[in-house]
């Protein structure tokens, strides 16, 4: 199970896992991460939510803030959004040139290889919802008092750029899908399917890693308590 595999990874303390969750507004990033966390021991979890860069973050290169959040050995890190925001949003809004975009994609690939070379296994999930489902979820936020706080008028501005974002995601996924850091496209219109696909993928990945509990240098039978 996920809990057993994570415990072994934490005890082994040699490798780590990084789960990147990307998607359009209302794509279900929060819910997907919450579902995964139900099976994880908090002691071995690092959760980072990347919002709009702070003034300090803008004073550094675009990978500075994400590198700081890379998982320590034995940990499972979950990123709600990531360094991919810096090649998606600026491109769609015309804030960077295509040449700068290509350079950033190359930097991302080099960064992710660096993580891989340091025993970080990456899983990058793109939660793919339809435009119609996004409309339903935005309307639900307006109708349900418990969800109203999540409604943001800026989401409507971004929704008008739907086609541009779809093309941007297509380009980024094609440019930054590598053997050491693959992308997983998750059908996310149905939450149960989204959760199942992600859970099975994480469990299968940890199972393939096959983490081992460390050996001890004494015979437990000889220890008197």
Description of the structure:
The protein is α/β, with parallel strands linked by helices and 225 residues long. Helices cover 48% and strands 14% of the residues. The protein has 10 helices and 5 strands; from the N terminus they run αβαβααβααβαααβα. A 5-stranded parallel β-sheet has the order 2-3-1-4-5, with helices on both faces. Helix 2 crosses helix 10 (191-209). The protein is globular. The model has no long low-confidence stretch (mean pLDDT 95).
Write a concise keyword list for the protein shown above:
single chain, 225 residues, alpha/beta, 10 helices, globular
What Rg is obtained from the alpha carbons, in whole angstroms? Answer: 19 Å
* Strand arrangement in the largest pleated sheet: 2-3-1-4-5
Percent strand equals: 5-15%
Helix content: 40-55%
Termini Cα gap: 32 Å
Please count the helical segments. 10
* Global geometry: globular
